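Example record used in the benchmark description.
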Amino acid sequence: MEDLFQVGVITAPHGVRGEVKVFPTTDDNARFKNLKTVLLDQGRGTRELEIEGVKFFKNMVILKFKGIDDRNDVERMRQAKLLVTRENAVELGKDEYFIADLIGIQVVSDEGEELGTISDVLHMDWIRMGFPPPMTRSPIRIVFVWFRYMSLSPFCISVRTASSHR
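Model output (structure tokens):
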């Protein structure tokens, strides 16, 4: 089970006072207003950053971290992931799960046939852009839609193998 969840990626500095533009990788951008700290993934470890300010611009979140007051300080943070601990993650409702907790789960049909293991979850941005998700020959693609947070309470799925997609 994952203990850290990615909530965004720093894309660039914003202005000259140490603010950063963050591409959110969470379903609810407003959650940044309730965060006091995030963990900066530095590749070899993490660094806790205290959030001093939050603004929103188009699809981006603008963050100001305490003690980071210069554009040069944030230049090195480009493309760094922002993480939260499980304790600071959003609270889930009944039958809701984090995507990270679904990876590795075995999928079984209603008839008991083992279909495989969840290896990834593709976001619906592919559809909005007009591109179908890439199909390969081996994996079975299970498609379903969720809103806001994933809920696995009663839902319908359709299973198509790559060979039936032709």
